[in-house]
């Protein structure tokens, strides 16, 4: 495994939390995530960001308009674009569990065109990849996504890309990688 730079922003230690941090951590841990880890451990350094970010994330992860396979695919495209190891590692497992083809996941990690995606997955992959690379999507990609997801679903899809891009930026700046794992990106 290549040498990785030292972390810049550490997770907040349990015994060093302020009252505001402890309340935020307890609220997150009592929800569907179950504990404060990954980007949330870093975000806890700023409780003002932590609360709204985790609330948006909870909606996008657990209550949005997209089926799990499409949501996880959008997250993977985002993690690949930002080369974010932690998000990739967590969500590639979830994508596989939700039915995304294993070879397609490997192709996305390698930044090559995936095969084995369903029609709806192909639409979401193309939309998200184009959005990250071009900062917008063309009319054909939009029309396909709108027909598949409706306008609310397109907004949720964009929000998933934006939210996970924000988490990737925080984690990349923090240099807080998944311990013991090698980057899936070449």
Protein described:
It is a single chain. This protein is 65% helix and 0% strand. By secondary structure, the protein is mainly α. The two termini are 12 Å apart. The model has no long low-confidence stretch (mean pLDDT 89). The protein has 2 domains: 15-63, no CATH class; 68-173.
- Residue runs with pLDDT of under 50 for 5 or more positions: none
- Strand segment count: 0
Mean pLDDT: 89
Strand percentage, roughly? under 5%
- Give the topology string: H per helix, E per strand: HHHHHHHH
Tally the structural domains. Answer: 2
Q: State the oligomer.
A: single chain
Q: From the helix content, strand content and strand pairing, which structural class follows?
A: mainly alpha
Number of helix segments? 8
């Amino acid at each position: 495994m290549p040498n990785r730079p030292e972390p810049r922003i550490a997770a907040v230690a349990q015994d060093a939390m302020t009252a505001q941090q402890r309340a935020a951590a307890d609220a997150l841990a009592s929800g569907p995530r179950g504990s404060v880890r990954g980007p949330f451990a870093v975000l806890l350094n700023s409780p003002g960001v932590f609360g709204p970010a985790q609330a948006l994330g909870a909606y996008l992860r657990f209550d949005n308009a997209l089926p799990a396979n499409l949501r996880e695919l959008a997250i993977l495209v985002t993690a690949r674009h930002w080369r974010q190891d932690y998000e990739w590692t967590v969500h590639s497992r979830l994508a596989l569990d939700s039915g995304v083809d294993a070879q397609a996941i490997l192709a996305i990690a390698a930044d090559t065109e995936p095969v084995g995606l369903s029609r709806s997955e192909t639409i979401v992959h193309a939309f998200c990849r184009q959005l990250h690379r071009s900062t917008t999507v063309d009319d054909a990609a939009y029309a396909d996504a709108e027909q598949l997801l409706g306008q609310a679903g397109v907004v949720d899809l964009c929000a998933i890309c934006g939210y996970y891009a924000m988490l990737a930026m925080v984690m990349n700046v923090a240099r807080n990688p998944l311990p013991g794992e090698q980057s899936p990106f070449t």
